[in-house]
Amino acid sequence: MVTDNTAYIGTSNWSGDYFINTAGVGLVMQQSQNDSSSVHQSIREQLCDVFQRDWHSPYAHPLLSYNGP
């Protein structure tokens, strides 16, 4: 998950019982303004770019375009 100033990477599948009944690993990253230079993107920006690249990939298709059972 990426917000306006923080990134979270974890092993969760985002269902309520997953947080209660299983263990996982999570990493929260928040980079201060001083940590990022104008030359390099912040970790949050890099993760956002990776998500956008994959989301808009020619290999990504809406689930509704597939006929299910």
Automatic annotation (TrEMBL):
Where does the chain cross the membrane?
Answer: none
Q: Which InterPro entries match?
A: Diverse_PLD-related (IPR050874)
Q: What is this protein called?
A: PLD phosphodiesterase domain-containing protein
Q: Which organism is it from?
A: Ornithodoros erraticus (European soft tick)
